[in-house]
Write a structure and sequence with these properties.
By secondary structure, this protein is α+β, with helices and mostly antiparallel strands. Helix content is 49%, strand content 12%. It has a single domain, classed as Glutaredoxin (3-Layer(aba) Sandwich).
């Protein structure tokens, strides 16, 4: 069974959703299908540049102040930790472009292990507060996905993969995907947001049967289970 996932590595709900999908598969036990996961890029903050800006500062500007920012971060962190994810928003996270990280994932999908690289990038940002535009951070994430350091540095020193990533981002927009995470199961059933594991299990059962699927909803809000542009 093929699962296509549109995600950004600075979207907290994308890591939470990834964990909940895994738990949904576990709920199916022996009935769980073999899955082939394909990761697709989404630029949640397309205007972000390579210079780091403190995340709290960026959130305060976006969400209307410090108090609201702290509420969002505290709520998100509590949800993530309940899923067993080591979120720590006191580690100095920064707002930067994720285009280099998506180029790395593009490379990993062809020459390494994109799932492992994605997991390393999530951990670097949310658990360690690392700058995802820093080449050293990207080299370390690439190493987690069996990519040689020299290969990653060569990628980052040029523009390889950039056109392909931007084309995939444009394709997501053309499909009506406006929020992440978005999961499309077998090309016909869409799950929007970091839904509970039970819902993922239900969707996987449905996709394995003859029930009709749905389409990604462009109206899904950025709220307790997803992030939106």
């Amino acid at each position: 069974m093929r699962i296509d996932i549109w995600s950004d590595v600075v979207c907290p709900w994308c890591w939470i959703g990834k964990r909940r999908l895994q738990r949904g598969l576990e709920l199916l036990g022996d009935d769980a299908p073999e899955v082939e996961v394909h990761w697709h890029p989404f630029l949640l903050d397309p205007d972000a540049g390579p210079e780091p800006v403190p995340l709290r500062e960026a959130y305060a500007a976006k969400f209307g102040g410090t108090e609201r920012t702290e509420q969002i971060l505290a709520s998100t962190q509590a949800t993530a930790r309940a899923e067993g994810l080591p979120f720590d928003f006191d580690r100095g996270q920064v707002r930067v472009t994720t285009l280099p990280a998506h180029r790395l994932l593009w490379l990993a999908a062809r020459e390494g292990d994109a799932g492992a690289v994605g997991e390393a990038l999530f951990h670097a940002h949310f658990a360690e507060g690392r700058n995802l535009a820093d080449p050293e951070v990207l080299v370390a994430a690439g190493r987690a996905g069996r990519l040689p350091e020299a290969r990653v540095r060569a990628l980052l020193d040029g523009t390889e993969g950039e056109a392909e990533v931007r084309a995939h981002v444009a394709q997501a927009q053309a499909m009506g995907i406006r929020s992440v995470p978005t999961f499309v199961i077998d090309g016909r059933l869409a799950v929007q947001g970091a839904q509970p594991p039970e819902l993922f299990a239900q969707a996987l059962r449905q996709a394995g049967g003859d029930a009709p699927g749905g389409a990604p909803s462009p109206d899904a809000a950025c709220g307790p289970d997803g992030c939106r542009v």
